Amino acid sequence: MYAVVETGGKQYRVQEGDVIQVEKLAVNEGEVVSLDVIALGKDGKVFVGEELANVKVNAKVVSHGKGKKVIVFKYKPKKDYRRKQGHRQPYTELVIETVEG
């Protein structure tokens, strides 16, 4: 059984025991978070919409961190214009504990 959950404007296909990195959540480490379910796959069938009224996905917050550095480099040729900037996206690491439904 798997579920498709949405958080931070992105969708993730998860099963029990999966470890995922999502956009940073304002939750302390060790707490349990309930995620929004948009689809459920069970026994070869896919359920969406009103069929998901009592489906829940609970995940435990393992840690917070920052991703790999991305270099943003802007330049205009022949004009001596160069700007270099780095960015590290913050994330929250979750372990999917239960998919109830």
UniProtKB/TrEMBL annotation:
Transcription regulation keyword on record: no
PROSITE patterns listed in its UniProt record: RIBOSOMAL_L21
GO terms of biological process kind: translation
GO molecular function, one term: rRNA binding
Pfam families per record: Ribosomal_L21p (PF00829)
The entry's keywords: Ribonucleoprotein, Ribosomal protein, RNA-binding, rRNA-binding
One Gene Ontology cellular component: ribonucleoprotein complex
Function according to Swiss-Prot or TrEMBL: This protein binds to 23S rRNA in the presence of protein L20.
Family, per entry: Belongs to the bacterial ribosomal protein bL21 family.
Subunit organization: Part of the 50S ribosomal subunit. Contacts protein L20.
Record protein name field: Large ribosomal subunit protein bL21
